[in-house]
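This section describes the prediction task in plain terms. A model, or a person checking by hand, is given the sequence of a single protein chain and must write out its three-dimensional structure as a string of tokens. No templates, partner chains or ligands are provided. The sample shown here is typical of the held-out split.
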Amino acid sequence: RLLSGFLDKCHKPFVRRQQGHCEPNVVFNPDDVVVADRGKGGKNNGKATDLMAHLEDKDKQFFAAYLDVMPLKWNAHFIPQAIVCDLYRNIDKYDFVGNMGENFMSDLERMANQFGDQLPRVLNETFGYKTKANLEKKNTGKEKNRHATHAPEKVKKFYTARTVRKGLEMLSIDYVLLGLEVPEWARQMLKDDVSGEN
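The expected answer:
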């Protein structure tokens, strides 16, 4: 969830500037006057500084920088679902709780069956869940459709063991309240990390 939100709201400079959801904007929006360059004598020369311009590994370092400062100003796109939906007190009041993991298609089928009406048709047109759920096909993120995230390739491109730890820490309430499993790729990345938490 953190990575998909980051890719949608932060990664592309045009989107980041236009939407302003990659917060805090004072850090990530290079057009903000607070991050303007100072000319000789400390006066503002009017040129904005892109704080990400000098990163060696732009993808991993940018994502790490984002996770490091994100708690300073939580954006609604990234707040843990347990907080947004007040799940600690109200999870039993929800008619449906699903998971966008590898059983996503089965969850869509379960939701379509539970609520009926036009929902099964709309969900199937959008996600093609009927065939995939009936074949017990796992959602791996590699599917060739317009909703595939290609997550396995993206996690390698953006995550490090440190950002995995940070992300799990930030979203731990979701993992606990929703009974989510730590993804295998995250477990493996942590296992392969030789530096540990020294």
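For orientation: Residues 131 and 193 are 39 Å apart (CA to CA).
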